[in-house]
Design brief:
By secondary structure, the chain is mainly alpha-helical. α1 runs antiparallel to α2, α5 runs antiparallel to α6 and α12 packs antiparallel against α13. The longest helix has 26 residues. The two termini are about 20 Å apart.
Length: about 300
């Protein structure tokens, strides 16, 4: 471990972590300031800091964010939420299961944070119509998004980060984690239905209002929807085959995003404004902080200590 630089790297990382937990300063700002400190103090050179950033993760996130930003303009996600509520016939318990299921599916195919942002506004509208507390549904959707996100390579940023160094592909996550996620999802829903049973009782007369909602009314652009689903299908297929195609997942996502922008004629300015730039900069800064720990030998030391502690 490299003396002073190691102490600086550890100190900056701990301070950044504490500030992120405290939530007094935006996490992206904390990560960027921490990254700047390790560069200015000489722990990492600028070249080393840039090399520490996993651009496959960043590229994959950007590509999927663009695809989601274009697709959401078609009304697909609102359509799915309303369809789920109608399929449950407005019955609160069934509706909680249906909305959680849609959230989990979107989390697995897109990413969990995006899935929640897309479903929550519709959830408020539906629960408002039924005069139900939104809280049980929101809890179910948040938990479903986390569970669904673990099932695939693209569902959760940590999965993306792990996939590269571990040499894991989309299919590896799907085969090994999706069945576990399905079981955990079922158990979680069962527990939530018991916990919130008193809040999941609706007025039969109000259910008729939900049944009067027409999912197709929420589809704003069918041509855009078809193009978006076509590209999304290509991208998912690319993820499944990326190890055989010898293409990084970021290239597939960015290629799909570029194709979707091309065939839809969407205005790049508006689409790029919808990208979660703070999240991307947060991960960029975090990569640099972790790179500082790796460069100074801290991570290697921790790994050796862990091996000694566990006996290998």
């Amino acid at each position: 471990m490299e003396g002073t630089h190691a102490y600086i790297a550890v100190g900056v990382f701990i301070a950044a972590y504490a500030m992120i937990v405290a939530e007094q300063v935006h996490r992206a700002v904390v990560a960027l300031v921490g990254a700047a400190v390790v560069v200015f103090t000489g722990v990492l050179s600028q070249e080393q800091a840039v090399a520490a950033i996993d651009f496959n993760t960043i590229g994959l996130l950007i590509g999927m964010m663009i695809i989601v930003a274009v697709t959401r303009r078609s009304g697909l996600f609102e359509f799915l939420a309303i369809w789920a509520a109608r399929a449950a016939r407005g019955e609160p318990r069934r509706m909680l299961v249906a909305l959680a299921g849609v959230t989990a599916m979107l989390s697995a195919l897109l990413d969990n944070v995006t899935a929640v942002f897309l479903i929550v506004p519709v959830t408020f509208a539906i629960t408002g119509t039924l005069q139900l507390r939104a809280f049980p549904f929101l809890v179910a959707e948040i938990m479903a998004s986390n569970i669904g996100g673990t099932a695939t390579l693209i569902g959760d940023p940590p999965n993306i980060m792990i996939s590269g160094p571990a040499g894991l592909g989309f299919f590896d996550f799907l085969v090994n984690l999706a069945p576990v996620a399905a079981v955990v999802f079922a158990i979680t829903l069962a527990l939530l239905l018991v916990i919130f049973r008193r809040h999941l009782v609706g007025d039969p007369e109000l259910r008729a209002e939900v049944m009067n909602m027409q999912p197709r009314d929420y589809l704003h652009d069918l041509a855009l929807l078809r193009k978006s689903l076509f590209v999304l299908g290509l991208v998912i297929t690319g993820f499944l085959l990326h190890q055989f195609l010898h293409l990084p997942t970021a290239s597939i996502a960015l290629g799909g995003a570029a194709l979707l922008l091309l065939i839809t004629g969407a205005e790049p300015e508006g689409i790029l404004a919808d990208i979660e730039w703070p999240t991307l900069f947060f991960f960029g800064g975090l990569f640099v902080l972790v790179g500082a720990l790796e460069e100074t030998g801290v991570i290697e030391l921790l790994a050796r200590e862990a091996l000694d502690l566990t006996g290998g």
